[in-house]
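Structure first, sequence second, as always.
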């Protein structure tokens, strides 16, 4: 029965989440990495990555790159639900500016931790994202250097 498999499913989900977390440690300049709440021991649904505001790429660009390389992702449902068409015109109350909800809506996505994903698959996901970031970082620094050169030429 499925219930008998549950302890192993939980163990593998936690392992996959941990491998992703460890794999993305060096990319914290570009991503907000998820953390468990203190004193908790979650069985993770997925690994939520949020692209930082100053990253030299967009979520759309990264997800397109991943899709082209057969890495599946999912968007986090909602984010700021008040921006979803289905919720327009519904009476509601707002506390704060909802900037974090907007950020999640624009810049977050899920990577899977499903028990069928193996450590080599996780390694592929991490290396694919590292490659993408390396290429975008290089492109951004090339543009910055070219802009600085043009400014110097004007002086």
């Amino acid at each position: 029965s499925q219930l008998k498999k549950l302890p192993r499913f939980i163990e593998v989900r936690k392992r996959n989440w941990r491998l992703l977390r460890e794999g993305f440690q060096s990319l914290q300049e570009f991503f907000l990495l998820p953390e468990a709440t203190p004193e908790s021991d979650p069985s993770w649904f997925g690994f939520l990555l949020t692209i930082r505001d100053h990253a030299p790429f967009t979520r759309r660009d990264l997800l397109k790159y991943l899709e082209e390389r057969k890495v599946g992702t999912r968007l986090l449902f909602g984010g700021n639900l008040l921006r979803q068409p289905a919720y327009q015109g519904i009476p509601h109350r707002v506390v704060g500016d909802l900037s974090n909800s907007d950020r999640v809506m624009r810049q977050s996505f899920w990577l899977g931790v499903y028990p069928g994903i193996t450590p080599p698959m996780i390694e592929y996901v991490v290396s694919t994202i590292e490659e993408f970031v390396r290429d975008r970082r290089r492109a951004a620094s090339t543009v910055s250097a070219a802009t600085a050169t043009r400014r110097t030429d004007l002086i």
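Margin note: The mean pLDDT is 90.
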